[in-house]
Amino acid sequence: MFHNIKAYYYRMMPHLTQADWQVLEERLTIKTYKKGDCIVKQGEVCNYVYFINVGFLRFYKLIDGKDISTGFIGASEYVSSYDSFLKRQPAFENLEVLEDAELHCLSYDDMQFLYKHYPVYQMFGRVIAEQLFIWIVDRSNELLLLTPEQRYENIIKNEPELLQRVPQYMLASYIGVTPEHLSRIRKKMMTKSIDIYQ
């Protein structure tokens, strides 16, 4: 039942003991969601961190009525609206299920209990925070320094699964363009590829 998340923890912290794992397992709950479900809603406080056992999710914001995708997360990863979860304030984003999902859920109170009584989980929390910080910096630099064409090239190179799993309008907002602009980028790149092989 908890094979994937257990493997994840032991990969991150090989020194984790069975007793340490057991106390975490006792606090995990399992929830299933259908495609289209909204796990975290903009304006509500996020009370859980989620490990994605099965499924595919995306973050998006509604800004002046526009749906702006800000991230995509697949299986064997942790996800949450972290600022809302940690500050106990309303979330600025939505977390939506793009493919039917099974999530392992840990509440805010249970996480605080683990931090207080089990130092190994403080270490784990720090590692996750560091990874999240690196992702935010990389994403910010990408939006500030790269052209839309370069962002799309990065998706092809680093996240090619998004091309099959994410609708074009979501991909377009993720790289900061309209769907029509994304279509032009794709056509331009296809033309380049044809020219190279002629």
Summarize the structure in words:
This protein is of the alpha+beta class and 198 residues long. It folds into two domains: 3-144, Sandwich (Jelly Rolls), CATH 2.60.120.10; 146-198. The protein contains nine helices and six strands, in the order ααβββββαβαααααα. Strands 1, 2, 3, 4, 5 and 6 form a six-stranded antiparallel sheet that branches. A hairpin with a 2-residue loop joins strand 3 and strand 4. Helix 8 (168-175) packs across helix 9. The protein is elongated, with a radius of gyration of 19 Å. Residues 194-198 have low confidence and may be disordered.
User: Rough shape?
Assistant: elongated
Portion of residues in beta strands equals 15-25%
The total count of helices amounts to 9
Structural class: alpha+beta
- Parts with pLDDT < 50 across at least 5 consecutive residues: 194-198
Q: What's the alpha carbon Rg, rounded to whole Å? A: 19 Å
Biggest sheet statistics: 6 strands, antiparallel
Brief synopsis:
This protein has helices spanning 3-12, 18-25, 82-87, 108-117, 119-145, 148-158, 161-165, 168-175, 179-197; strands spanning 29-33, 38-40, 48-63, 66-73, 78-79, 94-107. It is α+β, with helices and mostly antiparallel strands and 198 residues long. Pfam families: cNMP_binding.
Provide the fold topology.
Blueprint (H helix, E strand, L loop, with lengths): L2 H10 L5 H8 L3 E5 L4 E3 L7 E16 L2 E8 L4 E2 L2 H6 L6 E14 H10 L1 H27 L2 H11 L2 H5 L2 H8 L3 H19 L1
Helix pairs in contact: 4-5, 8-9
